[in-house]
Amino acid sequence: MSTLTSLARAIAAERGAAQPACAVRHLHISERPLVFIPLALAGEANAPLAAMVGDSPRAAHMLTVAEPRDRDQRFAFAAQLAAIVLRYIESYFGSEETAGTREPRIRYADAPQLLVPNPAGVAFTRLLGRSTRFRRTAGPYAVAETVPVLGRWLTFLTERAEHPASSLMLAVTDALALHWATGQSPVEDLNLGALLGWIDPPPGRTGAQAAARAEDPVRCPPAGPATDPTFDNEVLEARLLAIRTARATGGGPPMQRATAALTSALATQLEPTWTLMWRAVDLLRGLPAGNHVAARWDHDKDAFTWHANHLRDGGPPQPRRDGAVSAARRLAGLEQVQAEYAAQRAFDDPLVMAEHRMTGEAFAGTVTAAEPGRVDGSGRRRVLRPASPSRPPTWCSPGRVCPSPRPRARIRRRASSP
User: Fold this and answer.
1) In sequence order, which residues have a C-beta less than 8 Å from that of residue 43 and are 6 or more positions away?
2) Is residue 145 scored above 90 in pLDDT?
3) 103-139 per-position pLDDT tens digit
4) Domain limits of the chain?
């Protein structure tokens, strides 16, 4: 945590409201994102219990699993989810554009965006993609043809979520915490309701009061995928037991009543989070976009186009584990992108640049003279260096606040090593 971020948190705690940590928005927010809120059964690995998904506040689709431990019902849930997610993704296949000047290429004009409440939602989506992308559509234990396709798309999106500059899949709590500093700890910021309470408290309440109210699981249930233990013990267990009893007695009307009761109980856990998700989307849209956001979204569109073509051409699914060489290349690429993303944020946002100036990684000045051909040969290799430490680097434009050349050189050497 930087000094300015700590100061902003202290001011937020004193004033009772979150303080802006950024002057612009550093993420792309789609005009039609797909909100996905999963719930999982406690104590089971990747056992979906319910989900609410949709691309509009008024178009929520609720999916439930009557018996999460039953394999057939879990993959039936995946097939229902695939019908919604794939239809949403395929809606972006209709419009194309030409990109690039030297080597023009065709890509899709826009790309989908998946929003989940928190990083745990990203982890659940990653496991769901891994458990479905290798399933067979024929033979024993066959699943619907859309299930492995869904798994490959979910895996692609969760891999892009690890990309520092990508906005194809976002955890909303991370997106909000990037732009606002609250008066609570970063761990408490993982609670979507509490985080929004600090950022946009109701009239007559401070951020601390709104956050405390949001931490009550009765008023504001957890945003998933884990459910509240009290709800599990007092409500969910009884509903699941009623379904098992009805199934053992032959189903019929008792089974229908038990399923309806389970759906109604799970809706009380999902609907508050659904409202909070779209409220967060509106808050993020209210921030002006940074200058580099559009260019980073273009890279996302390139990645989306490549993966869509890969699936269309019959390419294999993503491996379970990366090989040593591919993992090293991926890590080096992520480190390089992280450095570029940090520099872009600093140039787009004066509040972010102020942190670099406090640590000495950036400075302000006017370039009065430059020696582009000066080479420093004191090290193991000859590199371009300014003639004096007091002068700005030759690549700094007049009137700009520029990062120091030292971090650039260090990052370059680190990224080039395996």
Assistant:
1) none
2) yes
3) 888 999 999 999 999 999 999 999 999 999 999 988 8
4) 3-226+287-320, 344-416
